[in-house]
Amino acid sequence: MRGFGRFLAVAAALLVAACADDPNATAPNPAGTAQNDPYESTNRKVFEFDNKFDQALLLPTAKAYVAVVPEPARDGIHNFLLNLDIPITFANDILQGDLTNAGQSFTRFAMNSTFGIGGLFDVASGAGIPPHEEDFGITLGKWGVGEGPYLVLPFLGPDPPRDATGQVVDIFLDPTTYIHLRDHFWYSAARNGMEILDLRSRNIGTLEGLERESIDYYASVRSLYRQRRNNAINNGRPDVTNLPDL
């Protein structure tokens, strides 16, 4: 999530930090501490709020989007949004010292921005250059920075300190931050809104199945979030030192 969504992440992080000073709101939970989730009680309340918001607004909107917009058009929007994020991935490739992936990112952006008509078509994948995603939260993890206590933020879901910090830094790694158009609220709102809608519409069945089959939906999301982030940090290698439980 970019732009205005990143600003919301910072604001929400400050809100959670303020709640952490309230012993009644965020008294450390011994069981949660074992999962590096010392404020599990508050996190669960925020998670419940986020889930209700999703069920009331995001999910119906995502279903309507899928019903109304043809799949080829949705794929084009998805490709366009991914292409906008490639410069951030490229910058993090460089910061991680991964010149191979940096070269792939540069080539993907060049090919998709030209032959792919501004990124609407993913011609690079067809040419054998698959996509990958990096952000500064992943970069910090590869530099050895710990996740910090697990946090769930209003409207944003899981966002521990390392990842929240990475989101802020990614704003400055995004070239569109320095384009005059970036000053316009509607550009940021539209881009972030479409990223959320695209992400939610592509995970309707996945999340519904996870919630239906989970004994503890919160713990399942926490575990899967960490698995995904650890997998990205370790380049797909299992992290035997930090295996979360469902």
Give an overview in words.
The chain is mostly helical and 246 residues long. The protein has one domain (4-23, 39-233). It contains twelve helices and two strands, in the order ααααααααββαααα. It has helices at 4-20, 23-26, 30-34, 40-68, 71-95, 99-114, 123-126, 136-142, 161-173, 185-201, 204-213, 217-233; strands at 152-153, 157-158. A two-stranded antiparallel sheet has the order 1-2. β1 and β2 form a beta hairpin. α5 crosses α10 (185-201). The protein is globular and about 50 Å long.
* Category from helices, strands and their pairing: mainly alpha
Q: What separation lies between the terminal Cα atoms?
A: 26 Å
- What is the residue-mean pLDDT, rounded to a whole number? 84
Number of helices: 12
Task: Please indicate the count of domains.
Answer: 1
Main sheet strand line-up: 1-2
- Pattern of helices and strands: HHHHHHHHEEHHHH
Shape: globular
Percent range of helical residues: 55-70%
Beta-strand share of residues: under 5%
Task: List low-pLDDT spans.
Answer: 1-28, 238-246
What is the total tally of β strands?
Answer: 2
Largest sheet: 2 strands, antiparallel
Tell me the radius of gyration.
19 Å
Topology:
Blueprint: H1 4-20, H2 23-26, H3 30-34, H4 40-68, H5 71-95, H6 99-114, H7 123-126, H8 136-142, E1 152-153, E2 157-158, H9 161-173, H10 185-201, H11 204-213, H12 217-233
Antiparallel strand pairs: 1-2
